[in-house]
Each structure stands twice: as structure tokens, then as C-alpha cells.
Amino acid sequence: MEGLSSISYLVFRVGRFVYAVPTIDVREIIHLPEFRQVDEAPDYIAGLVSIRGTVVPLIDLDMRFGRTPGAHHHQYVTTDKVIIFNCDDHPTGIIVNEIVDIYEIPADSIVPAPAYGRDVVSASVFIETVAKIDEDIIMILNQKKLFDPTYKPTEDSLTGSDADQSFCQIADVDKSIFHKRALELASSASREGQEDDLMPLAIVEAGGELFGIELDVIREFININEYRQVPCCPAHIVGNINLRGEILTLIDITGVLSLARGNIKSAVVVAVDNFTVGICIDNLSDILYLPVSGFKDLPAALGQESEDFFEFTTLYDGRAVVVINLQSILYKGNLIVNEVL
Q: How many independent structural domains does the chain possess?
């Protein structure tokens, strides 16, 4: 029933604004690479980038919404991301500052955007609905209108007819990093079905180490403000929380992985087989679509137990990341307790 009444959304931030799009519409997420500006493109097209042989336009959301910076010049930084969509079979990217979270949003929590005064920008064009998630209000983008040049921001949102040419800049100190990313993307092999070679991963930190969790088992990420401990339970059962009316069991996997337990402040809600549980983590580091060709096999010295729990290794910002097999950890690590779940 839940699958019919809720939709998974990717939540991201651009400046001070927080937006969401359906996760199913996202093709991949990459770090912002170097891009080329082009003549005769709309003002909101920051530039073009080659991704595995395909030329992809990148949209600057501030410019798309008709916002120009005036005296404040915006610069892209190495922590920016690009969310790639398949727009009528033509990949298109939007540049964002931060991937915030993935949420399962119940359909009854999504409502039409309210009527606004003249000072609010373009809500009636690109933002048709909003969602309430706990204390947050998330603006849901209509990406079809966003990518359609016939739709324009409302006149009230425009702050000037001439975009500041210094608005879209890359800091000199970061240019070599952006250039390296562009070379890596352009030199990757191009072939039919290349998107099938990408694995969507959440990069999380637990016990001071980085792990990758495949997105297809993830329902959402949550902050843990308080939880109720359950008496007479194994040590790995942290407790229960009430998640919007659903009693969710929190499980600590650091013991199985021979790591020290950190502070219980965040969790990733996963659905494995018929169980939905919260896996305690230190924090969510990133959400990325990484090429499987870049994964490495596990070192033989790790042994059979590690082979059961871990799948591959890869690199993220120069640090080693191990992709974990949650199903194996929960079952072979004896973390599923029927009496609790």
C-alpha cells in the first residue's frame, strides 16, 4: 500500500532554496566538471559538457528562475553537483549546491503551491506543488516545464534584462579540479546502454569509515532526535522511533563490521525483503551515480566474512569506500530479530 501512496523524491539545495524532483526521473548525479559556454544559448544555460560521448547542456537554476545577482557574483565550487535527467531522450543537467536527502513523500502530504504575492518568484511556472516533511516545506519542481524554453519566469521575478557575465564563474584555484573531472567524463567509453553501467549509491559514514549503500533499498534518510530503548533486546537493537505513525526499529551495524559505535543521530531507512528498518549512521556524505567499471574487487586478505558483507571498493574524494551488502549484513550478521521486528 505504501508503494502506491508515496513517491520517492530527491531533495537538493540551490542557494537558500530547497527543491525536490521524483527520484525515478533522475538518470545520474555527478560532481560538477569543467564546461564550455556557448553562443546563442538561452541565458540560463551555463554551458555544455561531454559525458561519455554525449553533449549535455547544464542549467543554472538561479538564471532559469530569472534571478540575477546584481553586485554579488556567483562562483561555482568543487562541492557543487549536477543532476542529470533524461529530457525527451536528451540528457539535461541542473547545477545544484548540495544533495540534501531522499524522502518517501506520502501523496497526501503534497499540495498545490499556495497563491503568492507579487514578491515571490515564478512559483506558478516551475513550482506547482509543495510538500511538508516534518518541519520542512519542500518545493517540488516541474522539470518538464523547467527544460522547456517556451516556459519563462514571471515578469515579477526578473531583476534585469542583462545577465551579469561574471555571474557564472569558476574560481581560479578550482579550475584544475573541474578540468580533471571533465577529462574523466569525456574519456569514459561511450556505448549503448551506458547508463546501465552506473550504480546509484548513497555514501554514508559509520564508525568513522565510508560505506556505499545501493539506492534501490533506501527509502529515506532521517535525523534521530529521540528514540525509545527496548528492554531485553540484543545490543545491536538501538531502539524504536515513531516515524510519521510507523514504528521503526533502529539497528546498529558497526558491531558486525568491527567498528566503534558513534553517536546515534542519523539513520538510513531501508527496505530489505519484507522488513523496513533504520540503519544508524554518523551522517550522509553524498548521493552519486558511479560507474561500475570503476569498482575494484575486495582484497583477498579480508577473508570470507568480509566477502559476505562487502561487495566492491571504490574511491570518493580520495577516500576508500566499501559498498556493503545490507541483506547479507542483516541476515548473516544475525541482526534480524523477529520478536522485535
A: 2
The answer to whether position 337 is within a domain reads no
Q: Is the dihedral of CA 22, 103, 5, 335 positive or negative?
A: positive
* Domain match, 209 and 181 both: no
Grid coordinates in use for 42? 538561452
pTM score = 0.69
Within-domain flag for 291: yes
Q: State the cell numbers at 12.
A: 537538493
Place of cell 535525523: 223
Residue pair 245/259 in contact (Cβ under 8 Å)? The answer is no
One domain for residues 11 and 140: yes
Q: Are residues 21 and 109 in the same domain?
A: yes
Altogether, the residues listed in the chain come to a count of 341
Question: Is residue 236 very low, low, confident or very high in pLDDT (cuts 50, 70, 90)?
Answer: confident
| pLDDT, tens digit, 9 for 90 and up, residues 113-162 | 876 555 444 445 888 899 987 777 899 999 888 998 888 876 555 444 44
